[in-house]
Design brief:
The protein is α/β, with parallel strands linked by helices. 39% of the residues lie in helices and 15% in strands. It binds phosphoric acid mono(formamide)ester. The site of phosphoric acid mono(formamide)ester has 11 residues, from α2.
């Protein structure tokens, strides 16, 4: 298989196992390219891509822009806070106006779950979801899987723990879909107030005890407490959260085996992860960021070649 089964990347849920493996294999080739002295290839030199961000981002936005430039695409960046969205222009009008300038692909981050799916049905361009509210963050899951594979090899039967604020996390949902399709066993851990009621229906076991899940897993993917999405209090205080669910280097060093620690960023240092754990030899957090460029190159390259 050399083509994706879709012309949009809206979520991992819509991808087949073959699609995911194709992205990961293609990303491995692009990782080799971006480690050469000349990091650019001409693959997308006739393509123009708009990155439209309605929510803040550091990693995803810069990573997509670098991926596009490494593929020789033309790139325009749009930030809703400085745009005519502030004057009341709709999402579809905004994007159709951008497309009128001969743009071929749209990479969008939006706070509303389903916004990229809606856009893909209403505009004539490939749409890539760069995170839609609390729903999905497909390229994060793909780069996480790529980074885990680099460390552990094939993920079949590997034990992956997702720890923290599962309720508000698009990374958790995309990781669960992606890792299960690759044959891994996924469990979640966090306070019951931050675990969605439907989570076990996804084939995911719940573990409330942090020490037990750390002893069980090969990888701990630690998630940020998303205070900006929390309208009510889900736990008494950050200090209390950290006491029960914060991971420290001492805890990692006391485990019987060496586990891999991941975090999609941005980290709340001293809350879900202590600084010494985040910066320890267990952590592959900056490898995840490095791999994000290669994985996004693979996604854009494959979508550009996908049939409509
Ligand atoms: N991991 C991630 O999505 O980070 P940003 O919000 O900085 O893009």
């Amino acid at each position: 298989m050399s083509q994706l089964s879709t012309r949009h990347l809206l979520g991992i849920k819509e991808l087949s196992e073959e699609d995911i493996r194709l992205v990961l294999d293609t990303a491995a080739n692009f990782k080799e390219v971006i480690n050469r002295p000349i990091k650019k290839v001409p693959s997308l030199r006739d393509i123009t891509i708009a990155n439209i961000f309605f929510e803040n981002s550091t990693r995803t936005r810069l990573s997509f822009e670098l991926a596009e430039k490494r593929l020789s695409a033309d790139v325009v960046n749009f930030s809703s806070s400085t745009s005519s969205v502030k004057k009341g222009e709709t999402l579809v009008d905004t994007v159709n106006n951008i497309l009128a300038m001969k743009v071929d692909m749209v990479v969008m981050r939006h706070s509303s779950p389903g916004a990229p799916h809606f856009l893909s049905q209403n505009v004539p361009a490939n749409v890539v979801n760069a995170g839609d509210g609390t729903h999905e963050h497909p390229t994060q899951a793909l780069l996480d899987a790529f980074s885990m594979q680099e460390k552990l090899g094939d993920l079949t039967g590997k034990k992956i723990a997702i720890i923290g604020d599962i309720l508000h996390s698009r990374v958790a949902l995309s990781n669960i879909f992606c890792l299960q399709k690759l044959g891994a066993e996924v469990r979640v851990c966090g306070p019951t107030t931050l675990l969605p009621k439907y989570i076990e229906s996804l084939g995911v076991k719940v573990e409330l005890d942090l020490h037990k899940i750390l002893n069980w897993c090969d990888v701990a993917n630690v998630l940020r407490i998303q205070l900006e999405r929390q309208q009510i209090k889900y736990f008494p205080s950050l200090r209390e959260y950290s006491l029960y669910y914060g991971i420290t280097k001492k805890m990692l060093d006391q485990l019987d085996k060496k586990i891999v620690v991941m975090h999609p960023g941005p980290i709340n240092r001293g809350v879900e992860l202590s600084s010494d754990a985040a910066d320890s030899s267990h952590s592959i957090i900056l490898d995840q960021v490095e791999n994000g460029v290669a994985v996004r190159m693979a996604v854009l390259y494959l979508l550009a070649g996908a049939k409509g």
